[in-house]
Design a protein that fits this description.
With 108 residues, this protein is mainly β. It has one helix and eleven strands. The strands form three sheets. It has a four-stranded mixed sheet with strand order 3-2-10-11, with no helix packed on it. The chain has a four-stranded antiparallel sheet with strand order 5-4-7-8. Strands 6-1-9 form a three-stranded mixed sheet, with no helix packed on it.
Length: 108
Amino acid sequence: MSTLSTHVLDTMHGRPAAGMKVELWSRDRSELIKSITTNSDGRTDGPLLAGDEMQAGNFELVFHVGDYFGERNFLDQVPVRFTISDATAKYHVPLLVTPWAYSTYRGS
């Protein structure tokens, strides 16, 4: 089944980022599709999109990093813009983050 999922790793403390707010938007931010909070494993409780919800198009995940770390000395919200080109495929978009830096990739 096709899905969109994410997880967040707090690389400053070396653990999953539990309790981080994550929003899924249409790329132009005209439509909030879903808002979740990561669980104790830094993941969502189920996919962000699945099956018929998956559509080709442009999307943006917004990770509320400043709220999670309790400071906004550098990063506040981290937007990750991406394209779903094949609505029948699996997309996993993880975030590795500290208060000062982040990295992302298309996972499996």
